[in-house]
Design brief:
alpha/beta, Rossmann fold, six-stranded mixed sheet, 10 strands
């Protein structure tokens, strides 16, 4: 096998690792073996072979495809078109932007994906180039999309698709959705072509550092966009299933409990009093209670919501799960999370109906902790794992440290999960120093760190 092909494969798999995907040595060997089982000139077969060897989660597919297109581009350099090609008139790069817009409108109307790919290459070649310094040029997708403005073609495309049909009905809804999907696809093709051009000029290794977005599980909760949080919510129940499987396996490894002295002695009578076989009492795995106390103020709401969802996805692993939310006062929100209920509805009802504001709606950990201890004195006991979720930014108010100390002493386990980087702890109005002396505080900025923590929390 050509050395250059193996070197490119190694570089590609290394880029996947740097992007956050786990690629083991065994999977590298699988990828190498796959090269001998496919037609190497078939680019899509190569893509699917690599994906089958290394991908483990559907959410990682976008990152994989982006990096694959950098290391194994469909074309190189400028494309050359024949005279009878529909795009031939655009080839010399002197076409007016309106000519490109007219062609784009026709492509969005027809939905010819292969022709749209070639058009994206041609339009980047004609409109995407810009001089960034004397003697140096670069490529920009925003230059292309700004000049074509595909979103402004919606009205004329709807008229062409509906052809006199009544507006406002199902036909318009389907047509509008079709146009939006084709427009989004075109934008993705333009961005991919710009990445290819940049990779040719500067090298795939350099472009790969900025070409892919962080994986959803690596995004900080405090910086997650709406799309990131939606993806994290979709990961909640698969994450819970993986953790539950590991917990079940750990319990099976410890089937036996303490030595059953009486049965062991009785069994030894058959071997002259020598205890060749020991007998043990049945192992009864301890299933603790889980109490989650969440700050749901605006600064950490996304983190608290995601962790609440995970706690309820894990409810089968605990005897009882109770959830409490607070901003400057505390209320139990367990009632909003019913088994089989819609998660989005539960969060919406919690935000609308829970009594979470006492004075001014700014975080007050001290008052919330004291209110929790006063109103729910039976919530924390010797079987309870207590989780407190929040950034501990208390607006310079009383901390309620003595009350927290009593709760921690009463609980079986107690942890504080903080979504802020530990370097920020103790700065400004942060009360982490006072709280970390009483309870173990753990940095949990993303889903990866949260999964690592939950594995610690689950009973053995």
């Amino acid at each position: 096998m050509a050395t250059g092909l193996v070197d490119r494969e190694i570089a590609f798999l290394d880029a996947l690792r740097k992007a956050g995907l786990t690629v083991s040595l065994a999977e590298v060997l699988d990828c190498t073996r796959a090269l001998g089982a496919i037609e190497l000139l078939d680019r899509e077969a190569l893509r699917h072979a690599y994906a089958a060897c290394v991908l483990k989660r559907p959410a990682h597919r976008t990152t994989f495809d982006t990096l694959f297109d950098l290391w194994y581009p469909a074309v190189t350099g400028d494309q050359t078109l024949t005279e009878d090609d529909p795009l031939a008139d655009l080839q010399d790069g002197s076409a007016d932007p309106e000519a490109y817009r007219d062609m784009l409108r026709q492509l969005l109307l027809d939905g010819d994906e292969e022709l749209m790919k070639r058009f994206a290459r041609q339009v980047v070649q004609g409109l995407g180039r810009a001089d960034t310094a004397p003697g140096r040029q670069s490529w920009f997708s925003y230059r292309v999309l700004r000049q074509l403005s595909p979103e402004t073609l919606m009205a004329s495309l709807l008229d062409a698709m509906l052809q006199g049909q009544e507006r406002g009905g199902m036909a318009e809804k389907v047509a509008r959705q079709t146009i939006q999907e084709r427009t989004r696809k075109f934008q993705e093709l333009v961005e991919a072509e710009v990445r290819r051009r940049l990779a040719e000029d500067r090298g795939a290794e350099q472009i790969s550092k900025t070409a892919v977005q962080p994986l959803a599980e690596q995004v900080d909760f405090l910086r997650a966009s709406r799309n990131d949080m939606a993806e994290l919510r979709r990961q909640v129940f698969p994450l819970a299933r993986r953790l539950a499987t590991r917990l079940t396996a750990r319990r099976r490894l410890g089937k036996t409990g303490k030595l059953d002295f009486r049965r062991t002695v009785r069994a030894s009578l058959a071997t002259g009093g020598v205890p060749l076989v020991t007998h043990h009492k049945p192992h009864k795995p301890h299933k603790p209670e889980l109490v989650v106390l969440c700050d749901v103020s605006g600064s950490v709401a996304g983190f608290a919501h995601f962790t609440l969802l995970l706690a309820y996805a894990l409810r089968e692993q605990f005897t009882k799960v109770r959830a409490f939310a607070f901003i400057d006062t505390c209320d139990e929100v367990t009632r909003f999370f019913t088994p089989g209920g819609d998660v989005a509805d539960a969060l919406a009802h919690m935000n609308a109906e829970a009594n979470l504001i006492w004075f001014d709606g700014h975080s007050d950990y001290g008052h919330s902790i004291e209110k929790f201890a006063e109103d729910y004195p039976d919530a924390v006991g010797p079987r309870t794992s207590l989780l407190i979720l929040g950034d501990a930014r208390n607006n310079y108010r009383a901390t309620g440290a003595q009350t927290l100390k009593r709760l921690v002493q009463r609980a079986r386990h107690a942890y504080w999960l903080n979504p802020e980087p530990s370097a920020y702890w103790g700065s400004g109005d942060s009360a982490t120093q006072a709280y970390s002396e009483l309870i173990e505080m753990v940095e949990v900025r993303n889903a990866v760190q949260l999964e690592e923590f939950v594995q610690r929390l689950l009973p053995a």
